[in-house]
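Narrative of accomplishments. A recurring question from our advisory board has been how the design workflow behaves on a single, concrete structure rather than in aggregate. To address it, we present the structure tokens for one chain from the evaluation set, followed by the sequence designed for it. No filtering or post-editing was applied between the two.
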């Protein structure tokens, strides 16, 4: 009887340990696609979800950088994300786990990518430090050209705009006929992407 009781207790302890590990660092969800319910929106790019039946995961949206608390447009970004997905069942694609043990993931609401929607609304910058995504770049260009959100003329700018400009200034380009960049050419690829002409570079930023 004692043996059975001990075995049962051991099973409970192991189950709790696994659950705690998953809650702390959800590495098992990287490169996985799953459905979840959005239960909380912390800010424009961070939400909490419930994976049925009872697993809670904090998610940092992949590829988008929204204003931090007290920065211009931080409330608008949070409101936008809340309206977009709070209380909704969404599709999540895990990409990575960040240093804060959040799952970095793309979220789709009714097959619409949340990161693209936030950027297209002018309420988030792309996160070129970690990802180069043509769809996100297109959404950013649309927001800037249409002067939506904090891209509006005269609008106060959150810190991500300065970071965006800094990342943009670091891009390199070379003209056709130069051949591929070499170790000594000083023309470095941006995460594997070469910009062959200045117009292509301009359209990418």
């Amino acid at each position: 009887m004692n043996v059975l009781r001990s075995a049962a207790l051991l099973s409970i302890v192991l189950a709790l340990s696994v659950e705690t590990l998953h809650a702390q660092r959800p590495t098992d969800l990287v490169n996985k696609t799953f459905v979840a319910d959005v239960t909380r929106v912390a800010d424009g790019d961070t939400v909490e979800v419930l994976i049925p039946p009872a697993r809670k995961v904090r998610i940092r949206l992949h590829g988008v950088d929204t204003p931090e608390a007290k920065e211009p447009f931080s409330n608008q970004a949070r409101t936008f994300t809340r309206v977009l997905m709070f209380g909704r069942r969404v599709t999540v694609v895990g990409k990575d786990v960040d240093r804060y043990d959040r799952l970095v993931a793309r979220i789709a609401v009714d097959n619409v990518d949340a990161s693209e929607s936030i950027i297209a609304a002018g309420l988030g910058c792309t996160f070129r430090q970690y990802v180069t995504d043509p769809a996100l770049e297109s959404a950013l260009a649309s927001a800037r050209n249409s002067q939506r959100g904090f891209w509006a003329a005269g609008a106060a700018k959150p810190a991500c705009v300065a970071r965006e400009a800094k990342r943009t200034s670091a891009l390199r380009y070379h003209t056709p006929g130069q051949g591929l960049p070499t170790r000594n050419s000083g023309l470095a690829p941006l995460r594997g992407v070469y910009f062959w002409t200045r117009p292509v570079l301009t359209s990418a930023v």
